[in-house]
Amino acid sequence: MIAYLKGTIASIYKVSGNRWTLILEVNSLAYELQVPSNLVQQLPEIGATAQIFTHFLIREDQAILYGFGSTAERDLFRQLISVSGIGAALAIALLDTLGLPDLVQAIVTGNIRALAKTPGVGNKTAERIALELKTKLSQWRTETGLSQSIPSGPSAAIIEDVEMTLLALGYTHNEVSKAIKAVSEDSLIAKSKNAEDWIRSAIAWLSQEVG
């Protein structure tokens, strides 16, 4: 119905928890959009011009306009809310927690542990998301060219081994996630199916960054 809006940022404010509202003025009309917190961090200052890609969601008792920084984020949001039991709030939370590339990668590889890091997403919900969207998103990211910017990454089993080992060594979840992402960008390690290679590389990276 509304593909995108381009106008002046009138205001941005937090509603509650992790919910943010953006007021965008377009041709003297002020549109209220609910947006992910990661978009808030990317927006220019109030008074500047912004282009926001939208999804208009109509429920029995309300109509809400959601805003995103790219068509890919908007399309992924649509895929997520198509899953049984996944509402708009949970879809936004998934995008906020993992970000577009890591969220797509987690779903395609069936990384339940990564998906379950999102508040409100348990293992059963994570499994359902992966089951229903794995094939769809694998095809979608190839068709959109998104796969060219997403490293193949380790398997879910390797990620679990790396996480358990590094957490046992005292590293935080945030440090572990950054290490896995950094190591994934190494083309030689990315091709390895040996968890020990990933662990050694992750420890080496963390030693430089943390220590």
Low-pLDDT stretches: none
Report the principal-axis shape: globular
Could you spell the SSE succession in H and E letters?
EEEHEEHHHHHHHHH
C-alpha-based Rg, rounded: 19 Å
Helices, by number, come to 10
Helix content: 40-55%
What portion of the residues fall into strands of 2 or more residues? Answer: 15-25%
Total beta strands: 5
Write the CATH fold name of the largest domain.
Answer: DNA polymerase, domain 1
Give the integer mean of the pLDDT values: 86
- The number of distinct structural domains comes to 3
Strand order of the largest sheet: 1-2-3-5-4
Q: For the report, how would you describe the main beta sheet?
A: 5 strands, mixed, barrel
* Architecture (CATH level 2) name of the largest domain: Orthogonal Bundle
Give the CATH class of the largest domain.
Mainly Alpha
Description:
With 211 residues, the protein is of the alpha+beta class. The protein has 3 domains: 4-68, Nucleic acid-binding proteins (OB fold (Dihydrolipoamide Acetyltransferase, E2P)); 71-148, DNA polymerase, domain 1 (Orthogonal Bundle); 156-210, Helicase, Ruva Protein, domain 3. The protein contains 10 helices and 5 strands. It has helices at residues 37-42, 71-81, 88-98, 100-109, 112-115, 123-144, 156-168, 173-184, 187-190, 195-209; strands at residues 4-16, 19-26, 29-35, 49-58, 63-68. A hairpin with a 2-residue loop joins strand 2 and strand 3. The longest helix is centred in the middle third of the chain and has 22 residues, at 123-144. The chain is globular and about 60 Å long. The relative contact order is 0.08. The mean pLDDT is 86.
